[in-house]
């Protein structure tokens, strides 16, 4: 999971819709810094991530039930709904995701009533459109980064030491087992045991289906499909109208001399983008065809090697010879004349001498077949080599097109941003109108994608109903099948148990070693982290060859906790690349979002952590105060920053003391006087010339 953006609306101190916060996730510039004073909304921003993904909050997040911005509620009319939402985007395994969690409160005369939250997810397709996924959003999120692990990647740095407290060790054990794949295997064993019991208790017969009920369900689904199809026609008409509107607006913008050059460049880039997308689609299809047509050849290497071994064995035993064939010798005996002219009468010396060759000669038919098969086997091996070469070539082309599309989109964003901020109000107005059109098109595309998914889902349901309608009673073969399944289930349980026992010890020792390396790199104490066979994380010291637990300080526990999280990411990434583990999260890339991670640490530890974490984490988002940032932390992290933002807090206090932070050569306000009686926070992007 690589986080790409976050946007908030009326979430706690953030009034209205914030600008989209773009999060850095490059190989080198992988760090995003967000500055803010205490109380400005840093903890709210941290919890915005956990709320939208898991509907959970950190321990320091007070009044978690009061999410909606107070100013938005105060300005609403009686019985009016006030919406609060957070939307984040991320990339994972080559796919783009956007997820939005929203809630509403309904204002009354004396108070307000909160409604239920709603989670919506979109997945980006190769065609640039957004679709609703076939799975539940919660299931997809938990496959990528399980909810039980979120506290190790989204955390309050000042309270991170809590994960090594005695009452938290059970949680560490379970979380570590999930990462190492042990918990996945344990669950598999439990599920197999339940499946075995279910099979053992399976009924020997199934009653007749309720045909009428199934037909009614089928008719209802067909009506749903008809309704969605009608809506699809309306969406297509609206899309055509929006495209026409977009073209007219673009032409008007191009007619303005000040914007003509930029707009023409935009259109050229759009054409290049569409061409690249079409080429990308064709390349993906070509790759599918290659795999479909010749993918089987890479699976036959063992079979072709076995064939050659058989051929060599036959030759060594003399059962496959070359030279005189049995058919030739039989013809000589049948005609009773040798090629030398001698008579071959039965019982004669010459006849017996030629007859001996029947045992020595091979069959010409067998030899021809063997030669033909050998040529075919050689061709299979050549095709396997050619298959990998073609796959590598197509994959390289796909990556090249992805990079080209990304560069074009980046340049388009830059040009459009310049047009939005143009001093000419007509130019900026036209560009904003284009933005509105694009947003409308995006919404229609999302709805269209969701409708297509629903139609596909309903079609599958109709097919399933058709099978149910035609279904007959269970026969005796089902009983035999159930018994075979029971035997296979028991065999799988025994094999998985052996795999778990072997891998558990190996991975635990490797993880412990990496925790020790990182802890010693950060801490100047002689203590050694240990992970017990129950996956409990402790700190020990060695005296006279005897290990004893250490009563670690808060700072040491913070370092230990950060070392644990960093080592988890580092080990998981390595194990995943080597395919050495069965892991529930199906990726080795994880983000870390830290709120105030350096508060109670000494200068040396702060410097070492600031130097180490950006190197180990795939993506780092740090929320810091001015005092936490200045000095050694800024020095160590400066070269890793890809994006930087300031949270400007508007105080309603009449005599509030304003505050600023200097970043680069600019001063950015941290605290300002509110222009009204409400307090709220704005997000400001830092512009640096690195």
From TrEMBL:
InterPro entries membership: P-loop_NTPase, Rad50/SbcC_AAA
Sorted UniProt keywords: Coiled coil
GO MF term list: ATP hydrolysis activity
Segments crossing the lipid bilayer: none
Chain segments annotated as coiled-coil in the UniProt record: 182-290, 391-506
Keyword Magnesium included in the entry's annotation: no
Listed GO biological process terms: double-strand break repair
Domain Rad50/SbcC-type AAA, residue spans: 5-226
Pfam families, per the entry: AAA_23
Similarity section: Belongs to the SMC family. SbcC subfamily.
Subunit structure, as described in the record: Heterodimer of SbcC and SbcD.
Protein name: Nuclease SbcCD subunit C
């Amino acid at each position: 999971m690589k986080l790409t953006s976050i946007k908030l609306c009326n979430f706690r101190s953030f009034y209205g819709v914030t600008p989209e916060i773009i999060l850095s996730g490059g190989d080198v510039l992988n760090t995003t810094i967000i500055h803010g004073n205490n109380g400005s909304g840093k903890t709210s921003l941290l919890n915005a991530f956990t709320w939208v993904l898991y509907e959970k909050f950190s321990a320091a997040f007070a009044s978690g039930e009061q999410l909606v911005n107070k100013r938005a509620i105060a300005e609403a009319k009686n019985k009016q709904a006030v919406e609060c939402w957070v939307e984040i985007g991320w990339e994972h395994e080559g796919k783009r995701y956007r997820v939005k969690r929203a809630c509403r409160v309904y204002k009354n005369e004396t108070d307000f009533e909160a409604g239920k939250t709603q989670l919506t997810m979109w997945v980006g397709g190769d065609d640039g459109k957004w679709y609703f996924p076939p799975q539940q959003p919660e299931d997809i999120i938990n496959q990528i980064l399980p909810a039980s692990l979120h506290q190790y990647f989204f955390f309050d740095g000042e309270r991170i030491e809590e994960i090594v407290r005695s009452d938290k060790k059970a949680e560490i054990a379970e979380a570590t087992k999930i990462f190492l794949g042990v918990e996945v295997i344990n669950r598999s064993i439990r599920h197999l045991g339940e499946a075995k019991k279910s099979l053992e208790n399976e009924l020997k017969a199934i009653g007749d289906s309720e045909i009428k009920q199934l037909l009614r369900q089928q008719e209802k689904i067909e009506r749903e499909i008809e309704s969605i199809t009608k809506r699809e026609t309306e969406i297509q008409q609206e899309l055509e109208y929006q495209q026409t509107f977009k073209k007219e607006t673009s032409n008007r913008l191009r007619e303005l001399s000040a914007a003509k050059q930029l707009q023409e460049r935009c259109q050229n880039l759009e054409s290049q983008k569409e061409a690249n997308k079409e080429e990308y689609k064709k390349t993906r299809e070509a790759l599918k065809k290659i795999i479909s047509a010749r993918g089987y050849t890479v699976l036959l290497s063992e079979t072709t090697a076995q064939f050659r071994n058989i051929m060599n064995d036959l030759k060594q035993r003399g059962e496959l010879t070359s030279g005189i064939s049995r058919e030739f010798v039989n013809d000589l005996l049948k005609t009773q004349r040798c090629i030398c002219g001698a008579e071959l009468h039965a019982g004669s010396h010459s006849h017996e001498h030629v007859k001996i060759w029947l045992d020595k000669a091979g069959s010409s038919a067998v030899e021809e077949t063997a030669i033909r098969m050998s040529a075919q086997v050689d061709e299979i091996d050549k095709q396997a080599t050619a298959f990998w070469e073609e796959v590598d070539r197509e994959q390289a082309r796909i990556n090249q097109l992805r990079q080209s599309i990304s560069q074009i989109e980046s340049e388009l964003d830059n040009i459009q941003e310049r047009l939005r901020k143009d001093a000419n109000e007509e130019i900026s107005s036209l560009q904003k109108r284009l933005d509105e059109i694009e947003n409308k098109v995006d919404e229609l595309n999302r709805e269209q994608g969701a409708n297509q998914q629903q139609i596909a889902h309903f079609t599958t349901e109709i097919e399933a109903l058709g099978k149910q309608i035609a279904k007959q009673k269970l026969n005796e073969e089902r009983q035999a099948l159930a018994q075979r399944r029971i035997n296979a289930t028991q065999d799988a349980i025994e094999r998985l148990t052996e795999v778990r026992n072997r891998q558990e010890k190996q991975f635990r020792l490797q993880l412990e070693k990496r925790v020790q390396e990182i802890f010693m790199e950060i801490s100047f104490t002689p203590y050694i982290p240990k992970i017990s066979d129950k996956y409990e994380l402790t700190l020990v010291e060695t005296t006279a060859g005897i290990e004893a637990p250490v009563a670690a300080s808060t700072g040491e526990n913070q370092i230990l906790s950060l070392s644990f999280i960093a080592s988890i990411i580092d080990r998981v990434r390595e194990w995943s690349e080597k395919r050495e583990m069965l892991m529930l999260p199906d990726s080795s890339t994880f983000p870390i979002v830290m709120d105030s991670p350096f508060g109670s640490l000494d200068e040396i530890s702060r410097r070492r952590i600031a130097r180490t974490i950006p190197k180990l984490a795939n993506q780092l988002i740090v929320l810091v105060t001015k005092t936490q940032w200045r000095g050694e932390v800024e020095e160590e992290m400066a070269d890793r920053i890809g994006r930087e933002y300031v949270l400007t807090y508007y105080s309603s206090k009449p005599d509030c003391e304003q505050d600023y932070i200097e970043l680069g050569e600019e001063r950015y306000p941290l605290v300002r006087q509110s222009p009204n009686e409400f307090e709220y926070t704005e997000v400001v992007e830092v512009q640096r010339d690195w």
